[in-house]
Amino acid sequence: MKLSVSQLASTMNNRFEHLLVSLDEAVILSGKKTEKQRIMEESEQADARRELLFVEEVAIKNREEIIQKRKLFIQQVEAELHVSLINDLAERFKNTDFILEKVLGYDPPIGKIFDVLYTESCSISRLEVLIKELDWLSDATINFAKQPKYRRFDSKGKLIVIHSLRSALSFVGIESLRTLLPALIAKRSIPAKSALFPELHKNIWEYTLGTGKTCRAIAEKEGMKWYLGYNIGLLSTIGRSAITTMYLKAFDGKLREKLIQAQKKKDPAEAEALNTLVPSHKYLISMWNTYADNLTNDLVASLKCRWLMVGIGFEDYIRIKEISFAHVKATNLHPLTSLLFRCRGYLKFKMMKANNLISKEASMLYLRNFGLGSDDVVLLMKTNLTGIEIKIPEIPQVPKALNN
Q: d(Cα 266, Cα 389) in Å, to the nearest integer?
């Protein structure tokens, strides 16, 4: 039973990785048919093709053999391109300062913001000095505070107008900023929307925010510091996000390089095959599995946080060798590592369940394998894991001068 549960966890995790990139890919992997496939099979065109298969069986078999040979050749060319590309990227993954700043958009003050947020000496003035250096975070904070749902009036019934970073920070308040700012920082790292993988941006953000909020809820339940759980969850996908962004940017350059080589070799067949290639979800997922957790650990270490001590959780996470909570417990890993392992498992289950990719029976085994009891599941089912929720008082303590 232990082996079968371990195999189930591995199969479901692979299905989840495909779901992040494309629901259709995950559906196919689960042995089901996508909506497009069902429509095609039910169409008159499909009936006509089946009749044609019967009438011209021999000719079509010959044609299929040619197509299959061409497909195998293209797969070989694609594999050779990716071996070279992945070797290049593996070297680039070592330059964490470059990745933080140029890939994720994380400027140097980010680590200081994390540290200041959770100290007793945290103040609006200290945060303002740091955030002012980051135009994107300043704009995101102001825009968040300006949402209609957070509209508030002062004691005289006058609308409180948010017109500057300081007024936005004062309006939201320190306690809510401890929730809001890490979420805005995490969102910054999410890969840009891509026409090739249109669902990826939304799905990774759902996974990122959901993991943060799940870790927070379980941390509070178990008497741990909520902000350690919240932030280890929010930061847990930065390696995956960096790999995605770097792969999509590097693919075109590597493709051009290979096309030039094919032209110099006067190999039109290879050049033609190269011209059919686009970024591959299979190779992207392979890189996630190989590099993401190690890169996340390196990137968090490079943030140089002195007060927000979540780095140890990521250091121990890369020591996990089996998809099993029993293994995590037996390896005696850090409590934050155990927390992240369990909460990632819940988010994977939740997102697969929402898309009908996991059965009820498999769900029970999967959750148990991640060390999640019924009390955990009940708590998390009652928790909103998909939105940034902050509490703003009816009359926020905004200094009078800021409203003029």
A: 59
Residues 33 and 27: their CA atoms lie apart, in Å, by 7
Rg (CA), the chain: 25
Q: Note whether 216 and 340 are within 8 A (CB).
A: no
Rounded CA-CA distance 98/331 in Å is 33
| Tokens describing residue 236 | 């847990």
Please give the structure tokens belonging to residue 330. 């037996």
* Closest by CA position to 107, among listed 302, 237, 273: 302
Residue (of 305, 395, 83) closest to 313 by Cα position: 305
Using one digit for the tens of pLDDT, what is the confidence trace for 329-359?
999 999 999 999 999 999 999 999 999 999 9
| Burial status of residue 44 (CB atoms within 10 A of its CB: 0-12, 13-18, 19 or more) | exposed
Q: Sign of the C-alpha dihedral, residues 151, 212, 30, 368?
A: negative
Q: Which residues pair with 153 in a beta bridge?
A: 159
- 235 contacts 211 by C-beta, under 8 angstroms: no
Do 277 and 82 form a contact (C-beta atoms < 8 A)? no
Q: How many CA atoms lie within 13 A of 286 on its CB side?
A: 13
| Cβ-based neighbour number of residue 370 at 10 Å | 20
Number of H helices, E strands in the chain: 21, 0
Q: Compute the half-sphere exposure of residue 257: CA atoms within 13 Å on the CB side of its CA.
A: 11
Q: What is the pLDDT of residues 286-310, one digit of tens each?
A: 999 999 999 999 999 999 998 899 9
Distance CA 232, CA 332 (A): 18
* Residue of 76, 86, 103, 21 lying closest to 251 (CA atoms): 86
Cβ of 390: how many Cβ atoms within 10 Å? 16
Q: 308 and 115 in contact (C-beta within 8 Å)?
A: yes
